[in-house]
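step 4 of 6: structure.
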Amino acid sequence: MEFKDYYETMGVKRDATQDEIKRAYRTLARKYHPDVSKVADAEARFKELGEAYEVLKDPEKRAAYDQLGANWKAGQDFRPPPDWKEGFEFSGGDAGGGDAAEFSDFFELLYGRGARPGAGSRASFHGQGEDRHATVLIDLEDAYTGTTRTITLRVPAVDAQGHVSVREHSLNVTIPRGIRAGQHIRLAGQGAPGIGQGKAGDLYLEVEFRPHARYRIDGRDVYLDLPIAPWEAAMGATVEVPAPDGMLELKVPADSAAGRKLRLKGRGIPGTTPGDLYVVLQIALPSADTDAAKAFYRSMGEQFKSFDARAKLGVGI
Amino acid sequence: MLPPLAGIVLDEQAQLTLAELSRACAAQAEHIIELVEEGVLEPAGDEPQLWRFTCVHLRRARVAVRLQRDLGINLAGAALALQLLDEVEALRARLRAIGGG
């Protein structure tokens, strides 16, 4: 069992006042809140913070924690001294931040499972189980074809004695063709079980696309940067385009400038109103790394003497 | 292998009732009504019994409820945070479009 240094997590001294602890929590919560923060491990940091605050904001839990002494270091192998919490009684508390079911084993060892905020009592006044939420990551290609995904959820379960345990629950879910980021798949009855005769809650899966090396996605439209050769841009060409659902032939009109957008109607994400695929032209220059190539570029300059690459800047020569 | 479950897709068409949205957010209906009154959510339908919410509302409502709960901010503060988050997201999308992110 790894020791957790809650003071270190919150960045406060061991003799910090309750006000200082609250201030530190608010500041760090704004920094690491998963809805706000883009820090890579924001979610994990926010959970740790919620757990630390759950202990330090409560004078009784804090006093018990302090009794362990100041010599423990974070990550150190920890066994609680016998009878250390004599004289304390932890009867649960109000909810701290984050998902309450996710507190560490260290927390549980000290305060027991019943001390998780909300454990046991939350749904007692109505029968229906709570709704649950999860995110499902798919590739853009999956939205063109549809797919199935196995979702593994960590589900807290309460037994007849009131003990809470976490078990894993796997579901196989159909991801329909045409799904888009931000849409949800609602699975009736796959949320938390009901109390007594109550119905189970629902499970909501929010769909997100994995970042793609080739495509950008905007709603139902898909964007692809397509490099072409200067002569293809100048004289027009028919080129092969890798669309998410296979190769396509695209006619590049003559005199195409870099950045020109060509729309392939209906080749975006499929659906009743399918999206479009936009091909954004980029001009790739062969490098002048041989004498022959240099000579060619030089003669091209000669041929296009009157061409002013910076004409649009409006500054004249 | 378990047989795959097919759910209902919640898209940009309004589908969820006030009761369903409240339950999905683990919030009281009054709390959702406040979010509508603050202009955070703009459901279809004229009165609470007729309101219908979309997948976009579901996401916004959950974020608003979490921000209020976890950061101790009030309704107006959560509304402002959501508006700024929308702007940040729009700017990030533009940055991605020009290959900067």
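step 5 of 6: annotate
 - The CA atoms of residues 18 and 59 of chain A lie 8 Å apart.
 - DSSP finds eight helices and eleven strands in chain A.
step 6 of 6: archive
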